[in-house]
Amino acid sequence: xxxPIAALLGLLPFSFAIAQYRCVENGKxxxxxxxxxxxxxxxxxxxxxxxxxxxxxxxxYSSAYGDWRGQIQYQASFKGQPxxxxxxxxxxxxxxxxxxxxxxxxxxxxxxMKGIASPSxxxxxxxxxxxxxxxxxxxxxxxxxxxxALFPKDKRTQFWVYAxxxxxxxxxxxxxxxxxxxx
Length: 183
What we know:
Blueprint: H1 2-11, E1 21-25, E2 28-32, H2 39-42, H3 56-59, E3 66-78, E4 81-82, E5 88-96, E6 101-106, E7 111-119, E8 125-133, E9 143-151, E10 156-163, E11 173-181
Antiparallel strand pairs: 1-2, 3-4, 3-5, 3-11, 5-6, 6-7, 7-8, 8-9, 9-10, 10-11
């Protein structure tokens, strides 16, 4: 007798019962068991009786995926010496979707970022593989690898990508970008 009842219960839509987060994506309200990943979702609902399920302020830092903003330092060095034309500290926006696609930009120095993020052995760290294009300092237009480490208690991430290429035609160059990002 227990099997037919269990089979019938399995057919019922129970997904609404475990929803903990109220997210807004593209103007639509969704109830989900995963933290919201968009900035739009972090805003509290409006109306005469808003119902907030979960804690949107803290859930924003439960995953390294999503949108990040902050000052990033762009640098290039030649034979260990900083190249002043490449140095910039600029507002940068980076978006990492749950499937791993990375898009970013820093309009002040013209750089656009595209790449892929993948999980690492550490739970709060993503491995990054990005390519810069459109940078005012053209030598920055290249592929870089690094990490995005999430620090939920501090409500921040540490972003760092670098390239130390073996360039037989132009030896001695290295590149790195680093900074602290927040939601």
